[in-house]
């Protein structure tokens, strides 16, 4: 198998995934998440049901298709922190950049999508699972980055505090969206909240997981 063949297969898979995701989102917004079946999505995307479930094992993942990025974003920010930068500073910097860019991953989803999520108990529950998975991923990364012993609770404590801030800011972005606020206004408000929330953690985490070399 040549590199070109492998690349074409990867491109085809990505396009198929996007086609399924786009069809699902359109149907969910038109009819509501709970009223659309996997068979409906397959028909709209012109693929087999098995193809849909191969790409999205759970129906909820069709609606929350940025889950992988959502879960890994804080951990990635910690891994990519600059020399002399703490985990807290890196996460604050990453969040503020995402807010400035009105990134859908932190909640800038638009009113119809926000209503769809909050109107479905299944999606609310799945989103809660993603928040938990994100905190766990962050705890693992903090443990690796600090060389913590297996019984050292500090990475989990830090992840719980930082994950709590991210969860709060996401929920606030969602609430403001449901209130009908424009994205520019939401970004301004959430940015202010982020400064307040991360500053509250500074006494506890300001010097935690600082990358050497600064």
UniProtKB/TrEMBL annotation:
Q: Which GO terms describe its molecular function?
A: DNA-binding transcription factor activity; transcription cis-regulatory region binding
- Quote the protein name from its UniProt record: Putative TetR-family transcriptional regulator
Question: Which residue numbers delimit the DNA-binding region?
Answer: 37-56
User: What are the protein's UniProt keywords?
Assistant: DNA-binding, Transcription, Transcription regulation
Q: Which PANTHER family match?
A: HTH-TYPE TRANSCRIPTIONAL REGULATOR BETI (PTHR30055:SF234), HTH-TYPE TRANSCRIPTIONAL REGULATOR RUTR (PTHR30055)
One Pfam family it belongs to: TetR_N
Organism expressing this protein natively? Streptomyces glaucescens
Print the organism lineage.
Bacteria, Bacillati, Actinomycetota, Actinomycetes, Kitasatosporales
HTH tetR-type domain sequence ranges: 14-74
